[in-house]
């Protein structure tokens, strides 16, 4: 296959990328943050920096499917609060990519994910009741949204790893399952599309990467269908536990790679 030979990968390595693409579809419609495993697979099979450019269109395909599935459940006040801070984070992440090597990127993001997972677990254990998503309009809510927004924009730009950061924010803001998925679907579709010019400018997206994407996107669809089936069979408590567990696994694998 020309695609495989142009990337110098084996059939088994392409199969691993296909599985990672399927997992992207599942994570976008069921357990957000689980695609940190996909990030690890892409980075293991492809050159680390190039892998982020190949993965981005795959993520966008998953975002489109998630928006089509959960569009009625998005909480737009939260999204409008997040976008300016995320834009700042994307710019910072772009500048960071200019000079940082792969080891620095992995260590920084892994540490951030583990720290925020710990904060979220502690917060949810000590809180007497969950927050209302409308709390984002309070002063404390705005500060939290901006903090998570900058970190989310930074991590999504440098390694497509913004999913766990924003998952933790939405959990800490008290979102229930469908509201969580609907809000994150629109959030990541808009953010990931906005990243395309930056990634292309850095040389991470080109004709060769898009040819590989054309083959991998086919595997996102069955993953999304599986996620849509599974999400209605997962209760709220298990859903939150899976999101946090996926974040911890993603942070550890970034630190230990």
From TrEMBL:
Instruction: Give the way it sits in the membrane.
Output: Multi-pass membrane protein
Is Transport there in the keyword field? Answer: yes
* Keyword Transport assigned: yes
Q: Where in the cell is it found?
A: Cell membrane
Q: Which residues cross the membrane?
A: 49-70, 82-99, 105-121, 148-172, 178-198, 210-232
Cite the entry's keywords alphabetically: Cell membrane, Membrane, Transmembrane, Transmembrane helix, Transport
The source's superkingdom equals: Bacteria
Chief location of this protein within or outside the cell: membrane
Q: Which Pfam families match?
A: TauE
The family note in this entry says: Belongs to the 4-toluene sulfonate uptake permease (TSUP) (TC 2.A.102) family.
Q: What is this protein called?
A: Probable membrane transporter protein
| Species assigned in the record | Streptomyces galbus
**Lineage of the source organism?**
Bacteria, Bacillati, Actinomycetota, Actinomycetes, Kitasatosporales
């Amino acid at each position: 296959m020309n695609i495989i030979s142009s990337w110098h990968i084996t059939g088994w390595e392409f199969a691993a990328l296909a599985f990672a693409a399927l997992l992207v579809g599942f994570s976008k419609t069921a357990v957000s943050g689980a695609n940190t495993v996909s990030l690890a697979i892409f980075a293991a099979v492809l050159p680390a920096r190039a892998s982020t450019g190949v993965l981005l269109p795959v993520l966008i395909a998953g975002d489109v499917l998630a928006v089509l599935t959960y569009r009625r459940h998005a909480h737009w006040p939260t999204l409008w609060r997040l976008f300016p801070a995320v834009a700042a984070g994307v710019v910072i992440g772009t500048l960071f990519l200019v000079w940082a090597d792969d080891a620095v990127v992995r260590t920084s993001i892994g540490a951030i994910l583990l720290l925020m997972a710990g904060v979220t677990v502690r917060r949810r254990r000590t809180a007497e009741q969950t927050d209302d998503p409308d709390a984002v309009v309070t002063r404390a809510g705005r500060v939290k949204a901006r903090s998570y927004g900058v970190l989310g924009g930074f991590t999504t730009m440098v390694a497509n790893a913004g999913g766990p950061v924003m998952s933790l924010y939405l959990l800490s803001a008290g979102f229930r399952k469908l509201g969580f998925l609907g809000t994150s679907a629109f959030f990541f579709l808009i953010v990931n599309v906005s990243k395309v010019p930056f990634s292309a400018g850095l040389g991470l997206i080109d004709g060769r990467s898009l040819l590989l994407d054309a083959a991998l996107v086919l595997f996102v669809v069955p993953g999304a269908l599986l996620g849509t089936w599974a999400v209605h069979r997962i209760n709220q408590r298990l859903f939150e536990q899976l999101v946090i567990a996926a974040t911890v696994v993603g942070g550890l694998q970034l630190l230990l790679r």
